[in-house]
Design brief:
The chain is an alpha/beta fold. The protein is built from 13 helices and twelve strands. The structure holds iron/sulfur cluster (2 copies).
């Protein structure tokens, strides 16, 4: 058999089939605090976060078994069966899926330590307790996945936590992901510790970092973050922005509106000025999750006005994008429904 016919045989065995499924069922991996899950979505009817390996604390992963379990889920999808935990999920879509065993969508959420103390963080419940919690190492497993040639570019890699830059394995992990061609890595960082690997990812166009400063003055920053690192954070944002190739928007700043704390146009405008001065061309807006949950149906006019100001100001300043995260997006979509 010549090379062309072998190649045809290979391709014919990998015929794609159209059915309802999602990227995470097919090729997803979420290293969570005490287990390995399929994804990190949890706001829909089914609740998401399907556990693939329970009680996981850094042991060797049996990748054959892992992919076998994924194949079983895929087979259910092929028969038109939606997993209970996936019911109602926005990520389900009908399309042609390949039938291969690899990972290209990854989420790292396996630690809770941070060098910041944001009032709106889940760790605010008990900063000291969350800061003390040990985390397992996932890097050896990702190295093995790469050795098996089952780590592929094309999807997304996200770091949650905790602060990623203070993880011992963060620098080698990001470098490995970049070396293996992962080209859509997103890191949410406090910005307090500079990461050379992140700067490398930005300079090679493969990684974007989002730093939520939430303030345009040190006083407001301190009220929200409880650490005196305002200037240091803007210095690091500037360094990440300088690593950008042709201002491609990979260094990003975020403003989470906290009603009663940073909800003035003056504060937001100062944040815009610092953002522009740092050389950032992509911004993100959001609203504090806990507040929004309780006030979703009675958002006051000044909060809508502030969101509008942010969206319009981003246009005036020629930002590449003003990205609205979940709550701000929801608020924007449902505008008008509750009398606004
Ligand atoms: S359909 Fe939704 S809940 Fe299910 S794996 Fe995909 S992202 Fe997760
Ligand atoms: S930077 Fe992120 S992880 Fe750290 S305290 Fe703030 S919200 Fe929490």
């Amino acid at each position: 058999m010549n090379f062309a016919s072998i190649k045809n045989l290979f391709n014919s065995n990998k015929e794609k089939q159209k059915y309802l499924s999602c990227e995470y069922i097919q090729h997803g991996f979420n290293a969570d605090y005490a287990d390995i899950k399929m994804c990190c979505m949890n706001t829909h009817e089914g609740g998401g976060r399907q556990v693939l390996i329970p009680d996981y604390y850094g042991e060797n992963i049996d990748w054959d078994k892992f992919f076998k379990e994924k194949r079983e889920m895929r087979e259910l999808n092929k028969k038109g069966i939606t997993l209970e935990r996936c019911k109602g999920c926005f990520f389900l879509k009908e399309k042609e899926w390949d039938d291969e065993d690899y990972i290209d969508f990854m989420v790292f959420n396996h630690w809770t330590r941070c060098n910041c103390k944001c009032n709106y963080c889940f760790t605010a419940e008990n900063f000291e307790e969350f800061a003390k919690r040990p985390n397992y190492s996932i890097f050896p497993q990702i190295k093995e996945l790469a050795r098996r040639k089952q780590l592929r570019p094309g999807g997304e890699v996200g770091f949650g936590g905790g602060e990623p830059a203070i993880l011992d394995e963060f620098e080698p992990m990001v470098n490995l992901l970049i070396d293996y061609g992962m080209d859509n890595i997103r890191v949410h960082s406090s910005g307090i510790k500079f990461s050379p690997a992140m700067a490398r990812g930005i300079s090679e166009g493969k990684l974007n970092v989002v730093v939520s400063v939430d303030a345009g003055t040190p006083e407001t920053y301190l009220k929200i973050k409880n650490v005196p690192t305002f200037d240091k954070v803007w210095d690091n944002i500037r360094k990440y922005a300088q690593a950008q190739c042709e201002n491609n928007g990979l260094a990003r700043t975020k403003y989470i509106i906290m009603p009663g704390v940073n909800d003035t146009i003056q504060e937001l405008e100062k944040w815009f000025q610092l953002t522009v001065n740092a050389g950032v061309h992509w911004i993100v807006l959001d609203i504090e999750g806990g507040w929004y949950l309780w006030n979703k149906n009675k958002v006051p006019d000044n909060i809508y006005d502030l969101l509008d100001y942010g969206i319009n100001r981003a246009k005036e300043l020629n930002m590449i994008r003003c990205e609205l995260y979940d709550r701000a997006n929801d608020m924007n979509i449902h505008r008008g429904e509750f009398g606004h």
